[in-house]
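Priority: low. Protein: 3-hydroxyisobutyrate dehydrogenase. Input follows.
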Amino acid sequence: MTDIGFIGLGNMGGPMAANLSRAGHRVRGFDLSASACATASENGVEIVGSAADVCAGAEVVFTMLPSGRHVLDLYEAGGLLAAAAPGTLFVDTSTIEVGESHAARDVAVKAGHRALDAPVSGGVVGATAGTLTFMVGGEPEDFQRAEPFLDVMGKRAVHCGASGAGQATKICNNMILAISMVGVSEAFVLGEELGVSHEALFDVISTATGQCWALNTNCPVPGPVPTSPANRDFDPGFATALMVKDLGLAQRAADAAGVRTALGKHVHELYARYNEEGGADRDFSGIINAIRASAGE
Ligand code: NAD
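Result:
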């Protein structure tokens, strides 16, 4: 049994903290949202009065927050780093900018602690089932220290390299995902115009060279994959607003690194427009509706 602190008990952090508690750890948690705290409490998380209070006795402190600004604010102004015992391992599982991730690690180490970036793939379903994939950046010995806890919350944890490498891996994956979803959606809309049925396209492409997760698992038309969000009016799944956030992170990282990601930039623009035009809370595969609407323009 290990004492663990957990801040950010929302859609992702709530079930992750619950899984740590279920595995027999003592989890002290905090969230600004009373309802998030109430749900976590029902799932075995001990709710404390402030973010800094989660550090009492904690060997490891997890954060699962909306952005890098939230993480940095809590680490410093929020008093987390000051409240923790020396050598505490801070594991940030939020998806944030690579540069902010470096900054979070730097302030944690300067305060006498250890730090990892460990963003996740797998969504709320994976967080609940304990089947997330963790992409981890930081020192190998810190990764080994975190692994037993990551194994409780996920099915796979990959050490991707030095600090920031986990965030970098996450945004590269999601950039590919957005590009492939736009490609699959364009193909279905073209198929519609050319008189090919959704079923025929799916039957061939899902086993041909065009196969990919966007088509085989998250197919943007209803029918071929009964569990895909297209069958439930694009109820997410992975919401467009989150995809826009991740594509923005990817583009800022590309700009900072001087790398030209022409398709990444283009799909970021397409998703930003779809987001503004009503798609924000729809699954990102709903982009097919925007592509279909623009077919005649
Ligand atoms: P969420 O909004 O449901 O949860 C974030 C929680 O942080 C909220 O409950 C909020 O009240 C809390 N919070 C904000 N500021 C706080 C503070 N100062 N102190 C304490 N609590 C505070 O978001 P989520 O869907 O759980 O996503 C969290 C992170 O995980 C994001 O970085 C997101 O990009 C990433 N992510 C989400 C998914 C997904 O499918 N939802 C998948 C992969 C990664």
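Residues 244 and 272 are 6 Å apart (CA to CA). The longest helix spans residues 165-194.
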